[in-house]
Amino acid sequence: MDIQKALTNTLASAFHDLFDQKVDPDSLLLQATRKEFEGTYTFVMFPFLKLTKSSPEASGEKIGNYLLKHLSEVSAFNVVKGFLNISLSPAYWIRLFEELYLKKEIGSFPQKESRVMVEYSSPNTNKPLHLGHLRNNFLGFSIARILKAYGYEVIKANLVNDRGIHICKSMVAYSKLGNGETPETAGIKGDHLVGKYYVLFDKEYKRQVRELMDAGMQEEGAKKAAPWMEEAQQMLVDWEAGDPETVGLWKKLNGWVYQGFEATYRQMGVDFDQYYYESDTYLLGKDIVSEGLEKGVFFKKENGSVWADLSEEGLDEKLILRADGTSVYMTQDMGTADLKYRDHQIDKSVYVVGNEQDYHFEVLFKIMRKLGRPYANGLYHLSYGMVDLPSGKMKSREGTVVDADDLMAEMINTAREHTQELGKIEGFSLEEAEALYEILGLGALKYFLLKVDPKKRMLFNPQESIEFQGNTGPFIQYTHARIAAILRKAAQIELDYSAARCRNYLSLETVEQSLIFQLNDYSNKIAAAAEELSPALIAQYLFDLAKEYNRFYAELPIFSETQAEEQAFRVALSAQVAKTIKSGMGLLGIDVPQKM
RNA sequence: GGUCCUGUAGCUCAACUGGAUAGAGCAACUGCCUUCUAAGCAGUAGGUUUCAGGUUCGAGUCCUGACAGGAUCACCA
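ok -> structure tokens follow
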């Protein structure tokens, strides 16, 4: 039953019967009626006054009456200025509710014959994850779930940047100052340990640069001539040559980092189906260079470097291969794009990468299109904005990064304090209580990072950002826990709230109507979130739903002063809201508790 | 300097893609726990949507131009 379609079809025939005008039903748009007016859907008359040749009010009246006569679901209408507000009958609402209530699965779409890869996280292995990575990981994981719900087969991929000069920096510092330290002996996570040496490298390197400059060297020269930098560069060369000692050290440090990352990912609640490592893929793409030269997509300069000329597309020339024949970032990414396609025959590929790489991906996608890749039109860059601190941008060198592990631990701790303050853990075992703190702390954090439009950059204030009231994860989780309590009580008194029992309840309150409307809207939101790659739409939806439910909860009694069918319906409605919240929060990667 | 993104209440964010009197949350203030969880609900206050033009029945949304913030424009990744 698609009421919007029925309405637009009837509107079109109204134009035909009343005004002798042919109108395409698909061109007629309905919008949700604003809260302060009576009705569910609103049809705006203004664009059609030329067809009706009468005033907005008169046209609205005529069409409203026509709807009333020809569509049984329409129970009333009113016209305010040029807006025709349409009300639907209680019978319609109850029927719609029953339809939703009886569905086994909520918010699921028919399986598409289409496979999509979502690449996210993609960390460097020289330092631990920070707040920016949290936004990336939560976004990627959530988008993967949303696309899956929308019917795609989804592959979550992590392209680990495990080689390069940055790793070598940590390696140099460790070989100088490490003294055989390990995560075990140091008592810290492997990624943090390696990060420590990365910072130590930077410190010493800066000192060396300053020393050289004091001795009269220019800054640029000093930066290259600093002994540790020269060693790091040499290490990179050795690594590429496969020098056993260098590779051994590299493996050791990376192994520690992976152990650390794994713990962080587990705490974040994200996972991957496929890992790619740049140490395996960094040489890929070179054969595409020759292919591109043959096809005339690329051209060679006198010194032997290879370029793509994108000036016709409004961009400029872009380097594809260095004069010495070594590859650049773009070369690798072309190769990896092919690799992903070869491995999984994907139709779409989503790259969850920060917006500082907008230009890079614009170029990459254009090149793949020019090369005639079959998957080129399915490439998307989910470009998200940076997370700023009140002090401005996070800078690892200035020690202003917010560490991911620390932040999550802090969140869980705050949840613990807050819950204990409210005295809400009576009857909880210790394990149950700890599990709850984790659900709430991470829920607050994830919701906070996901509720904002991904492409906008956002502000994170450690002191104030994470609340447990208002538009927050815990608010929605709380709503779920409240409903769970109702369902426990219903079970306890053995209340029958089957669909058949709700059917006779026809004196719906407006809150109840609007809840049914919102429940029905869930699948539309999933579709929109999937198409726009925006979990924020789900977050916003869940907040609105929870808010509306809490209004219902405060205004209407359930177990007392109610008729049998009224009671059954309200419990069933609550159950459906809880189900939707659980499902929607699941799309955000957030758990919901039964009690809190 | 070129290109791209952003600018909405004191703060953090919405606004169904051009529709009605621009909405939430936080912070402030006022009510509501002897009924299903007060991490809640109801209310008050808070706006020249950065500015100036333009397009039309109608603009926060579209176009032009300023202004402000950010990103990017490497034989870096």
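Residues 164-270 of chain A form one domain.
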